[in-house]
Protein 1
Amino acid sequence: MIIIFSCWKTMIGTAVAALPWTFQQSGIVLGVILSFTSFLISFYTCKLIIDMAGTDADYSDTLKKFYGKYLPIDWPLPFDVL
């Protein structure tokens, strides 16, 4: 969960800082269209991850299920510091 919240905090903070400038550069109509397109892609990706996780307790369990021996056992540990 720590990894998810750290990534979420980083993405939200960056988006909040950058959105006014991007809307100013692209215009309101194109900005809304691009924001909505980004939302759809993010929502679809999230839905795929949730569907694939099933009853897994953590996202790392899902990764181990699909990547098996190619995923190091201690993979999430470096990200716990964030």
Note: The chain has one domain: 2-81.
Protein 2
Amino acid sequence: MKRNVYQHIYWNEIEEKLIAGLGNDFKKEFFDDFYIDFALLKGENKYAIELDGPVHYLWPSKAVNQTHLARKKHLEWKCWTIFDIPFFLEGEALQSRIDEIIKAIK
């Protein structure tokens, strides 16, 4: 499973909502030069859904750090469409982000 100690506090809830909206074809902890939290391969399309913990951000601005940006750029270069879910989203904001992802992938 996860290589680090942080796991998004809403991991199970997000997983259930993604499955309800997109089916159970996700691969968890898929590896393609980097680990991807949830990968969905649909034909030639590759979707990565990342639950980004605190290590991905600079504080206190909550701007993504350079390591995160380099990783994302590399995966995009490999034709992945990346969807990030920041750890600080909760409630309606979290649900809205999940809905956006489901709509974009469908």
Note: The two ends are 27 Å apart (CA to CA).
Protein 3
Amino acid sequence: MTGGSASAVQAIQTLTAGLTTTLSRSVVVLYCCRVQVKEIKRVLKSFMMKLQARDAKERLAMEWRLVALALDRMFFVLYVSTIVAFFVTSTLIYQIHSIEFADAMENIIDHIEQQQT
């Protein structure tokens, strides 16, 4: 080997060593990025699962609120219907008894008048 070719070989070896070091560093950086991306994916997946669980709980709570509202309205209508039915029947019963009482009083008065004559 001549002096020029020895220095060229040495320059190539230095360049190759530098490239190898740079490639090694790049591989390490890429590996670290890959690990970080996996960690980010894991955190995002966990976050999404928590959001889905919270949404499911909120949907369930909303369904129960709707059931409670429907039952509340149903019992309110039943309550009002019962009150109306009570007042209607009590009024009818009062009227029937009033008519019966009036008839009974007329009969008594007629009977008394017949006895006096």
Note: The mean pLDDT is 83.
